[in-house]
């Protein structure tokens, strides 16, 4: 397409001379006719390229629908695994598929930008690039944003070491870990990708409030090999309850809120500043709800709350 355009542009500048009356010159008329033929070929090729991109975007949308189904099935398996089921929760296949689709979409984005550059050099009346490329780019960006937002997942739910294989029950002042992964393994090495964690970003009023001790932010780094993926691994975290400044003599105790301690469900939210190929956005994902206890006597009641939630709901929020 670029070669065709350069040829047309050169011939146009050499042969076409507006403002001069050369209608009686048969050679000039022939040259103008040849120019029009070249422009028609150029126009047809531009339309073909755009039609191919439309087709590829349609296929990408279909593929993305399949990926969302696979991701939904993985989330269900992870939920069952948290309750003790022996299911496969590996993310490698999903990571491969998400990355391949992401690569294809980013490549299309670069092609669209290249088409935009071509239009800057040569344009004409009813130029399809002028009308269609902005719409294609908008559709492509929406696809990419949706893919990236769904590709940010919690790989390891909050759990304490040696927690009797029962994640999602945390004890104050005890260490726990949680890990998120970006399934699209594409990133700009010149851009610092920072992941942050927040507890109960928009929690129900009346619940106890907690602070995460130790670092609540981490730079997301790719490992030395592509197999390592893009992971933000938070380890050795601890929770400390915020003291209510208004509490004094005669105030309500911690267990006298809207729910008893072992029925309060909390969430950790990850946010990630992502940038690649000129696309910048904030990604967000949340853990499954978990219970925070202060002593081991509360463990069985807390585990009952986790069982109830996970058997009755698929939406963490």
UniProtKB/TrEMBL annotation:
It is found in: Cytoplasm; Nucleus. Signal peptide: none annotated. Residues 32-59 form a coiled coil. Residues 157-293 form the STAT transcription factor DNA-binding domain. Its main location: cytoplasm. One of its GO terms (cellular component) is nucleus. Residues 1-144 form the STAT transcription factor all-alpha domain. This is STAT2 protein. It comes from Pygoscelis papua (Gentoo penguin).
């Amino acid at each position: 397409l670029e070669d065709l355009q350069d040829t047309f542009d050169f011939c146009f500048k050499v042969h076409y001379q507006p403002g001069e009356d050369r209608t009686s010159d048969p050679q000039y008329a022939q040259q103008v006719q040849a120019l029009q033929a070249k422009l028609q070929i150029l126009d047809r090729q531009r339309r073909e390229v755009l039609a191919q991109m439309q087709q590829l975007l349609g296929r990408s949308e279909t593929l993305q629908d399949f990926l969302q189904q696979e991701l939904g099935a993985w989330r269900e398996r992870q939920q069952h695994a948290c309750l003790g089921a022996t299911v496969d929760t590996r993310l490698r296949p999903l990571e491969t598929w998400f990355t391949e689709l992401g690569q294809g979409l980013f490549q299309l984005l670069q092609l669209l930008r290249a088409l935009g550059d071509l239009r800057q050099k040569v344009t004409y009346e009813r130029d399809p690039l002028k009308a269609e490329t902005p719409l294609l780019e908008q559709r492509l960006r929406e696809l990419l944003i949706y893919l990236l937002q769904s590709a940010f997942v919690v790989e390891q739910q909050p759990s304490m070491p040696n927690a009797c294989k029962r994640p999602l029950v945390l004890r104050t002042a005890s260490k726990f870990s949680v890990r998120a992964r970006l399934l699209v393994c594409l990133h700009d090495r010149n851009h610092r990708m920072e992941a942050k964690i927040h507890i109960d970003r928009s929690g129900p009023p009346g619940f106890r409030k907690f602070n995460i001790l130790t670092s609540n932010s981490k730079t997301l780094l790719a490992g030395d090999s592509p197999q390592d993926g893009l992971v933000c691994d938070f380890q050795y975290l601890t929770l400390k309850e915020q003291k209510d400044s208004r509490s004094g003599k005669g105030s309500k105790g911690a267990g006298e809120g809207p729910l008893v301690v072992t029925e309060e469900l909390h969430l950790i939210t990850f946010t990630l500043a992502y940038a690649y190929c000129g696309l910048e956005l904030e990604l967000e994902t949340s853990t499954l709800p978990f219970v925070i206890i202060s002593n081991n006597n509360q463990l069985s009641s807390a585990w009952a709350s986790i069982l109830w939630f996970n058997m009755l709901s698929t939406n963490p929020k």
